[in-house]
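note to self — DONT lose this again. spent like an hour looking for the file last time. sequence + predicted structure for the chain T wanted, 232 res
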Amino acid sequence: MQRERIRNLFEQQAANYDIQWQRLALFNDALHLLMQSLLAGLPQEANFLCVGAGTGAELRFLARQFPDWRFSVVEPAESMIEICRQHANAEGFAARCEFHQGYVESLPDKERFHGASAFLVSQFILERAERADFFADIARRLRPAGKLVSTDLCAEENSTAQDQLLDLWIRVMRGGETSIEDVQRMREVYDRDVAVLTPQVLQAIIQSAGFEPVVPFYQVGMIRGWFSTRTE
């Protein structure tokens, strides 16, 4: 099952996940800076939902910037959410967090949150209808006019350009010297487990799930980001 395979993949990566992404800190720094400005208009004591939080990069940033916010943290991989919890304890904001090992649809189906994030999550949902359901599950848990910031891997519908961009992305992710064999193995993983859509298609999926407008605000390599508002 796709979900189980992806969950196991992240369980295996958890111990080295922060180290792996440390070399890509500039990507996160730019994303977080923009996110801070986009979400600054939320209430001072906002309730915020972090979907697929991993080890908590965006959670930690938001907790520092907005010291009165409370967070619900959703992550299916037990090892990832345990590291996320350790970070929250070490940085002194764990009391403002509720940790949920699982998926967003397992949360109470009520309009509770002023905002939500979902960074590099929906790309692992291969079927487009299920991907729309994922964003709709988030929308149902946001208050009217609640805000969503999301990112996913995207590429334009040009096979040659997409192949070259994917090779570049794999080399960036792997770091150092990357052999042709390493690239090929990673490409097989991406072909099997990641749905790389065009930005236009993904934007339409988010909009169909109950968000309007859906505004692109971030791009680096294959990562595209959108800021959207739950419709009334």
